[in-house]
Amino acid sequence: MTEYAQPTPSAFDELVATVARLRAPGGCPWDAEQTHASLVQYLTEETHELIEAIESGSRDDLLEELGDVLYQVVFHASIAAETPGEDFDIQEVAARMTRKMVGRHPHVFAESGAQKTTDEVIAGWDDVKAAEKPHRTSVLDGIPQGMPALALADKVLGRAQKIGLLETDAPALLPIDSEAELGPILLAIVSAAKAQGLDSERALRTALRDLQDEIRAAEQEIGDGSFGLADGDPADAGVIAFPTA
């Protein structure tokens, strides 16, 4: 009888098995008790630690923090595999992500795919996303409102500029040429706000809510074309004026 050697598990397979053992009967009671909701705080912490490693850490820092984020993904998939109504595992997570990436890169994976510029790729990405999510009625749909205010502002402004509701070539309000110049200015604004007892994060979120209301109103004037505003032209509603003070 011919004996076949069992394939050596990959490092990723070993990680998946480790999580399964920790959550199984006789494993770690803490791990077994966790839920998607209870792990959110750790996912947030690990993500911020990974960002710090990317920005200012060493190779070992990056290696460790990538592993911590990966562990969170595997942990959530393990919970889903045992949760009625979810019933998926890490393999299904990977399979769906692969399908998404292949579908969003026809210029790479399609038989007749042609080389494209970065701008053409981004435009095509938006078209594919719009087709994938026809229920979205606004360019703002899908933006996580729980993002830090500065990151949220960048995302909202980018979406509005993309469909022509905000000018992309408007004169700069401040003569800023680099992030090295921008950082101290932002810090000075926060410092001045703090000296006056003001909350910079809350103030920016309030301004963003108002801006998003304006964008949605402008979209309604144009027509429900969502991402591409297919039923109208942004010029029909006018460009949203950006505050100068």
From TrEMBL:
GO terms for biological process: dATP catabolic process; dGTP catabolic process; dTTP catabolic process; dUTP catabolic process; response to stress; TTP catabolic process; UTP catabolic process. Residues 34-109 form the NTP pyrophosphohydrolase MazG-like domain. InterPro entries: MazG-like_dom, NTP-PPase_MazG-like_N, NTP_PyrPHydrolase_MazG. The keyword Hydrolase applies. Coiled coil: none annotated. The keyword Hydrolase applies. One of its GO terms (molecular function) is nucleoside triphosphate diphosphatase activity. It comes from the Bacteria. Gene3D superfamilies: MazG-like (1.10.287.1080). Pfam families: MazG. Keywords: Hydrolase. This is Nucleoside triphosphate pyrophosphohydrolase. It comes from Cryobacterium zongtaii.
